[in-house]
Amino acid sequence: MTSTPIAKYFWIVVVGYAVDLGSYIGMVEAGLHLYLAYLASFALGNTCNVLLLRKFFAAGRHPFAKDLALSMASTGIVILLAMGIYIALMQLLGVHHLVAKVLSNGVSFLVNYYLRRRFF
How many structural domains is the chain composed of? Predict the structure, then answer.
């Protein structure tokens, strides 16, 4: 049985997301401000995703450094949207920061899937 591209992408990204969420929790527990932990964990998870996606999803049209830079730039724009959702969920709706992180990352997953398929 072969998997669909989005299913394969999903399972690869789950590993990167585990790095993202795990490092986020660790940084928050260590006392780092929520917003800084959100951004730093994004960078770690995104780097992990680029490495795994290049190996298992698509070889990449660019050398690794350029792919990482482009990925950070494109997902960096998406992270602004996701962080806006994250902040709104916490500040306006009183959602716990971990739940807000999971929900906002769900939105970024879908947008990043489209960007990676289209441009990388």
Answer: 1
Which residues does 114 contact at the CB level (< 8 Å), separation at least 6? none
Give residue 84's domain range.
Answer: 5-119
Quote the pTM value: 0.74
Neighbours of 75 (CB within 10 A): 22
Query: What tens digit of pLDDT does each residue of 55-109 get?
Result: 887 776 778 888 888 888 877 788 888 899 999 999 999 999 999 999 998 888 7
Q: How far apart are CA 52 and CA 95, in angstroms?
A: 31
The full 3-state SS of 70-107, as one line of letters, equals HHHHHHHHHHHHHHHHHHHHHHHHCCCHHHHHHHHHHH
Give residue 76's identity as a one-letter amino acid code.
Answer: G
